[in-house]
């Protein structure tokens, strides 16, 4: 049984968003543990809140892709903004 190009593209897109979600959770967890070990509990809480902010568009995109294939509109922008804020907070507090 062969699959058409649009079906495989949708699967690749879905897997790409899933990998992004897993990567964000992993990096956030490692970063939070490192900050807690250095005694920066407040900064770790801030980083966790920023990561939750980044998880919203990824989770929403996963739900949308489960039902239909629609182009991403605002989700990549919010994800990029959240990651930029997280990197800035890490540079300031880290």
Shape: elongated
- Percent of residues in helices comes to over 70%
**Element string (H = helix, E = strand):** HHH
Low-confidence stretches: none
The domain tally reads: 1
Alpha-beta content class = mainly alpha
* Rg calculated over all Cα atoms: 16 Å
Please describe the biggest sheet, giving its number of strands, its sense, and whether it closes into a barrel. none
Percentage of residues in DSSP E strands? under 5%
Q: In terms of quaternary structure, what is this? A: single chain
Contiguous helical run count: 3
Tell how many strands the DSSP assignment holds. 0
**Amino- and carboxy-terminal Cα gap:** 52 Å
Query: Overall mean pLDDT score?
Result: 76
Short description:
With 94 residues, the protein is mainly alpha-helical.
Explained architecture:
This protein is mainly alpha-helical and about 90 residues long. About 85% of the residues lie in helices and about 0% in strands. The protein has 3 helices and no strands. The relative contact order is 0.14. The model has no long low-confidence stretch (mean pLDDT about 75).
């Amino acid at each position: 049984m062969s699959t058409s190009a649009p079906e495989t593209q949708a699967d690749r897109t879905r897997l790409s968003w899933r990998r992004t979600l897993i990567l964000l959770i992993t990096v956030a967890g490692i970063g939070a543990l490192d900050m807690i070990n250095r005694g920066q509990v407040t900064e770790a809480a801030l980083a966790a809140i920023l990561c939750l902010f980044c998880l919203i568009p990824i989770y929403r995109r996963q739900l949308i892709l489960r039902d239909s294939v629609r182009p991403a509109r605002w989700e990549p922008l919010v994800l990029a903004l959240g990651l930029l804020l997280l990197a800035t907070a890490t540079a300031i507090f880290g």
